[in-house]
Amino acid sequence: MQRTGNQAYQPSTGWLRRLIDALLNRSAVPQEQTGKPSDSARFSALSLEIAGCDKLENVLPRLMETPQRSFRQYNGLESAHLLIATRCPGEELQLHTPGAHPGRTDDLPPGVAGFVRYQLSGTLGSLDELHSLAMPLPASTEALHAIRLQSTPAEAWLMLSGPVSLPKAATATFESLSRSLGQGLAIHAAHRQRLDQAITHERRTHAAELHDSLAQVLGYLRLGTSRLDARCGRCDQPELQAIAADLSQQTRHAYRMLRDLISSSRLTLEGGSLHSALPAVVREFEQRSALVFELDDRCPQQEPDENCAIQLLMIVREALSNAVRHAHASHLRIQLLPLDNGGMHLRVEDNGEGLDMERRRGDSFGLSIMQERATRIGARFSIEERPGGGTRIDLILEDNDARS
């Protein structure tokens, strides 16, 4: 059965609905006799919203406002501060605080955010799921209470700054909140994983269909127009020669763009990240050429989202392909450099013949393809002569907050 465009990336969500219904039924508990809602009732809606949200960084700060008020209202912790740390597969660590702009932690006491990041690289990072830990905050009489949530395949930690010894009611609330958060994050991560798998499958299906149909036709036209161009070049009709040459050039361009589209649809990130996929690309080109390749990755902790990573990987592949085929270089360097605002700077440079030689070639469509890919991910792209000879390609990918 043929699917419409609106149906293309719509995997079944019935399993998610059933899980949410189960959570609703389990959390439908009566209020305590005191009239104060139970922890389960207060936090059940939070769990459900997390499970069904699109982006955690946009939703968690708002959802955490209610739990933080609960701590301050019911447990006598007027200065309590909640914090959630999340790390999804292939992404960098993110900190979320109640009511704050995504990625901002200005409302935390001074030094807490830095302390948390440091501890998550060591003690907290190795904490077992559902285990809790309390550690004194530097230059403070308070402590950081942390528990690792059960949220596989994502990693998440719930933290609370407060007295070294929490009241019994606060401890119970903290544990109840951790269970609700863990449920929501686990369902969210599983649902996101299923969506990614469905999109990848759809892309590969479309790539196979293009390869078996349009690519064959364009390949035939490319050969035919090339022969026509060669034949017309031997006749004394300049106008006909120009038309044939243009047809041949445009057909080769269309074929190249289609092959690029098919390749990008099939491409996956080897190892699950840009930083693990780049060495694989370098090894591939080392086997295909005599160039000396150098990879300088200085920001292994910064991981763009999958779409950006794939586009960056395709830009690198196009740059390496151009250098191998056209530049007549002996050395090529790929650099990933961190930016002060959290973004990333990709640089590819060679010691070949330089930009002018490449521009004189009629088949150098790779430059425009790289520019188009950079535009898709909101990056700044530039190409220039390399000091000392050769070509330098720079791509600046700002942090999401800086781009907004």
From TrEMBL:
<dbReference type="GO" id="GO:0005524">
    <property type="term" value="F:ATP binding"/>
</dbReference>
<keyword id="KW-0902">Two-component regulatory system</keyword>
<dbReference type="GO" id="GO:0000155">
    <property type="term" value="F:phosphorelay sensor kinase activity"/>
</dbReference>
<dbReference type="InterPro" id="IPR036890">
    <property type="entry name" value="HATPase_C_sf"/>
</dbReference>
<dbReference type="GO" id="GO:0016020">
    <property type="term" value="C:membrane"/>
</dbReference>
<dbReference type="GO" id="GO:0046983">
    <property type="term" value="F:protein dimerization activity"/>
</dbReference>
<keyword id="KW-0547">Nucleotide-binding</keyword>
<keyword id="KW-0597">Phosphoprotein</keyword>
<keyword id="KW-0067">ATP-binding</keyword>
<keyword id="KW-0808">Transferase</keyword>
<dbReference type="InterPro" id="IPR011712">
    <property type="entry name" value="Sig_transdc_His_kin_sub3_dim/P"/>
</dbReference>
<dbReference type="Pfam" id="PF07730">
    <property type="entry name" value="HisKA_3"/>
</dbReference>
<dbReference type="InterPro" id="IPR005467">
    <property type="entry name" value="His_kinase_dom"/>
</dbReference>
<keyword id="KW-0418">Kinase</keyword>
<dbReference type="InterPro" id="IPR050482">
    <property type="entry name" value="Sensor_HK_TwoCompSys"/>
</dbReference>
<dbReference type="InterPro" id="IPR003594">
    <property type="entry name" value="HATPase_dom"/>
</dbReference>
<feature type="domain" description="Histidine kinase">
    <location>
        <begin position="205"/>
        <end position="401"/>
    </location>
</feature>
<protein>
    <recommendedName>
        <fullName>histidine kinase</fullName>
        <ecNumber>2.7.13.3</ecNumber>
    </recommendedName>
</protein>
<dbReference type="Pfam" id="PF02518">
    <property type="entry name" value="HATPase_c"/>
</dbReference>
